[in-house]
Amino acid sequence: MAAYTQHVVVSTGQSDWTSRIEDDGAGSGWGQLVRKLKQKLGRGGEFANPYNNVLVTTSSFEGEPAASDTSNASALIWPGPRYLKNIAVTDVNVRKLIQAELLPTKLHPTQEHSFTATGKINMVRNEAIATDLQAAGQYWHSPIVLICGHGGRDARCGTIGPLLQDEFRRLGEDSKTGDALPISLRSVSQTGDVEKLSVGLISHIGGHRFAGNVIIYFPTGFRPDGESLHPLEGEGIWYGRVEPKHVEGILESTLRRGQVIKELFRGGVGKDGKILRL
Question: Each residue of 75-100: pLDDT tens digit?
Fold first, then answer.
């Protein structure tokens, strides 16, 4: 897995996308958000920074507003994670989103002499400018399972991804209510309950040969019993070559007990953005 500092998971309400997600979503708010983020953060973009790699993917989550909305979008941003809904996808708002949520808190030491004083200010995070975005945001309190199901990019992911999603949902049904796991991010979890994890498909994250690819994000400060911190709180765990037969073990070992399964482990990301290795 490539190093990254943040992950933006854009809600689309669909389970597959064209090979390049920035070419998808014509006429939709989510499509505009993906394109603007890629343009501004990617190579040659206004906020491009090789030491601040922001991963942008689409997801099958419905989100709020509806995915068919033409001018607004919703996204989950990890670490945190924070759920931003009803983002008006204008150049001004996307710049605010990047400056308030996605830029580094400080420049890499090798960049100290690469920018003017004004340039440095524009390339580090400024949370004070985003009161409207922050008002629309809510912290997510329970784990999130993201599965690459990008069949438009690679047939292997398109085949195994939905199978894994079905198995996570089948085995991970809420033992308290019997309800299937949510496919929407509309009802923001406030419980910190490991039984309330959300499961969704996402677009390409690299490493087709590792299909099925699964990322599990644990919220910062996650306390599943209301008292003790989960061993993996604030971290993102990447698993590869996951098959449906592995799902039960992942739910029990990783989600509930905080144990990493070495045989499946591709890497991980800490809440400080550092790569995790065993």
Answer: 999 988 888 888 889 999 999 999 98
Q: Do residues 214 and 239 lie in contact, with contact meaning Cβ atoms separated by under 8 Å?
A: yes
Which residues touch 150 (CB under 8 Å, ≥6 apart)?
Answer: 16, 17, 157, 158, 161, 201, 202, 203, 204
d(CA 50, CA 53): 6
Q: Which residue has the tokens 């920035």?
A: 22
Residue 208 scores a pLDDT above 60: yes
Q: What backbone torsions phi and psi does residue 167 show, to the nearest 5 degrees?
A: -70, -40
Radius of gyration of the chain (CA): 18
Q: pLDDT tens, 171-192?
A: 876 544 334 444 444 444 444 4
Residues 83, 197: Cα–Cα separation, whole Å: 14
The CA distances from residue 206 to 1, 111, 264, in Å, are 7, 27, 16
